[in-house]
Amino acid sequence: MSATRYRRFLKLCEEWPRDESKKARDLGTFLRQRVAATFREGESTQISDPEKCDQMYESLARINSNVYRQRFPRVRDTSFTGVTVEECRVLLSGSMQQMDEEKKGLWKTLMQRFSSKPPEDSQEKNQEK
């Protein structure tokens, strides 16, 4: 029975999309790591709580197949804040620094790039040493 569970989890890992923009924070990557850690011995791994394992698989399979998205469709592709799906993706991708750069004014950006003194963070680190 453990072999069947192992194969089902492997199939789920293959189907689960991987988001390269999130680096180490991707749910697909996390899922693959957990399956590898749980089934260290492959098909011969003994599961201590088979019911919980099956329940976890079923839950993940429902999320992967968009059961809840189809059951509860959204009227609009924005949140209560008005942020679009693409803007959320950018925020969650880890490119916050890039967005901060965009929010700075042109003058401030140019002053930082062409300033002869080091940035404030570097000065504080040098003073601590």
Number of helices: 8
Q: Pairing-aware structural class of the strands and helices? A: mainly alpha
The largest sheet is: none
Radius of gyration from CA coordinates = 23 Å
Outline the low-pLDDT stretches: none
Number of strands: 0
- Which term fits the overall shape? elongated
Taken in chain order, the helices and strands follow as HHHHHHHH
What level of helicity do the residues show? 55-70%
User: How many domains make up the 3D coordinates?
Assistant: 2
Keywords: Mitochondrion, Mitochondrion nucleoid, Transit peptide
InterPro entries: UQCC2
Biased composition (Basic and acidic residues): 118-129
Subcellular location: Mitochondrion matrix, Mitochondrion nucleoid
What's the SSE blueprint?
Blueprint: H1 2-15, H2 27-38, H3 50-64, H4 67-71, H5 85-92, H6 96-103, H7 106-114, H8 120-128
Structure description:
The chain contains 8 helices and no strands. By secondary structure, the chain is mainly alpha-helical. The N and C termini lie far apart (60 Å). The protein has helices spanning 2-15, 27-38, 50-64, 67-71, 85-92, 96-103, 106-114, 120-128. The longest helix is centred in the middle third of the chain and has 15 residues, at 50-64. The protein has 2 domains: 1-75, no CATH class; 85-115, no CATH class. Helix 1 runs antiparallel to helix 2 (27-38) and helix 1 (2-15) runs parallel beside helix 3 (50-64). Residues 108-129 are annotated as: Disordered.
